[in-house]
Specification:
Elements: H1 6-20, E1 31-34, E2 44-55, E3 58-67, E4 76-83, E5 90-91, E6 97-103, E7 108-120, E8 123-134, E9 140-150
Antiparallel strand pairs: 1-9, 2-3, 2-9, 3-4, 5-6, 6-7, 7-8, 8-9
């Protein structure tokens, strides 16, 4: 099978896995979307010292973000910095965390965060969350909305 990009290969893998996971007796799972349990404290991330400053050429942001560890998820406590003109997520000081901001209706911003970790060389996990905030908001939480695993 030939794929034009790693992303299309991943989408094909996810599609195949969706079919394969229809029954508990199907083929072994290779990629799966996991339900994000909103009661799990490891899936609520705490943001503090959120700051954003803008000029005509774009905006720069900075914030601290922390997440509790659980039996299935490593904890983290890091600082994220980036700009509103970046095309994708930017790595935070702890490279397991990525962040991005997008303008919403003024004065709101959508703060997006991604946590990625490995349990083994071949098993990767990704958790995504986002929150709309105003420029004046300094502390808030981001609830994880999506969790994926690839093995």
């Amino acid at each position: 099978m030939h794929f034009s990009s790693p992303f299309s290969a991943f989408l094909t893998l996810l599609s195949a896995t969706t079919i394969a996971t229809a029954s508990p007796f199907s083929l072994p799972k290779t990629a799966v979307r996991l339900a994000a349990d909103p009661t799990n404290p490891a899936l609520t991330w705490h943001v503090s010292n959120f700051d954003i400053g803008c000029s005509p050429s774009g905006c720069v942001y900075s914030f601290n973000i922390a997440g509790a560890a659980s039996a299935n998820t490593p904890g983290f406590n890091t600082t994220c910095n980036g700009t509103s003109v970046q095309d994708d997520y930017a790595a935070c000081k702890d490279k397991a965390m990525l962040a991005q901001i997008e303008p919403a209706q003024y004065p709101n911003w959508t703060v997006k965060a991604q946590h990625q970790w490995r349990e083994t060389e071949w098993s990767h996990y990704y958790a995504f969350g986002e929150r709309n905030v105003t420029e004046a908001t300094r502390s808030f939480t981001i609830t994880v909305g999506e969790v994926y695993g690839v093995a």
